Structure formats: C-alpha cells, structure tokens
C-alpha cells in the first residue's frame, strides 16, 4: 500500500513541476491541473476506503473537479477564438 502512495506522490509532484515549468501554454497548464486533481482524487479514495469507509466526500470532489475542468475548457476556447492561440503572453493585451 505504501508503494501506491509513493507512486501517487511522484505523479503529483511531476504534475506540479509541469504546471510550473510550462507556464506559457494554457492548455498544458490546464491538463497538468486536471492531472493533479486526478491524483488527489485517487489519494483521497485510498484514504477514505482504508480508514473511514465513506464515499460522499469523493462525490463532492468529483463534482467540483468536473466544474473546474468545464470552466477551464470554456476559458481556453474563449481565448483561442479571441486571440488565435493559447499563449499566456496574450494577457499583456488585457491590462
């Protein structure tokens, strides 16, 4: 069981590294953010099934993560339609 936590921790920190290193492309940032949410969900499911036997919190977490994914996708589509690319440098035009 400890090896699963180690693998998930490595996956989480890899997604944090990708999120912080690929800050210019919005699509890659959103994908790494979704990967972080997936890893956190798996960690939460391991914890809840092992210690608490409760699944209600996981449904709330999945609901909020789906809403976050839909909002990020709509923001990405809006920016690509407006400016033609997903680079973060286009935010300089907004200020």
From TrEMBL:
GO cellular component: membrane
Catalysed transformations (reactions): a ubiquinone + NADH + 5 H(+)(in) = a ubiquinol + NAD(+) + 4 H(+)(out)
Xref: InterPro entries: NUOK/Mnh_C1-like (IPR039428)
Keyword terms of this UniProt record: Membrane, Mitochondrion, NAD, Translocase, Transmembrane, Transmembrane helix
Annotated localization: Membrane
UniProt-recorded Gene Ontology molecular function terms: NADH dehydrogenase (ubiquinone) activity
Signal peptide positions on this chain: none
Keyword Cell membrane: no
Chief place of localization: membrane
TM stretches of this protein: 6-21, 28-49, 55-80
Membrane topology: Multi-pass membrane protein
Record carries keyword Transmembrane: yes
Record-stated family: Belongs to the complex I subunit 4L family.
Name of the molecule in the record: NADH-ubiquinone oxidoreductase chain 4L
Source organism of this protein record: Curculionoidea sp. 13 KM-2017
Organism ancestry: Eukaryota, Metazoa, Ecdysozoa, Arthropoda, Hexapoda
């Amino acid at each position: 069981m400890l090896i699963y936590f180690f693998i998930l921790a490595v996956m989480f920190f890899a997604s944090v590294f990708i999120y912080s290193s690929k800050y210019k492309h919005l699509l890659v940032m959103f994908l790494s953010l979704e990967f972080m949410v997936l890893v956190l969900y798996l960690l939460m499911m391991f914890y809840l099934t092992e210690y608490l036997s409760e699944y209600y919190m996981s449904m709330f977490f999945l609901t909020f993560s789906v809403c976050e994914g839909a909002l990020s996708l709509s923001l990405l589509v809006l920016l690509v339609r407006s400016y033609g690319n997903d680079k973060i440098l286009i935010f300089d035009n907004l200020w």
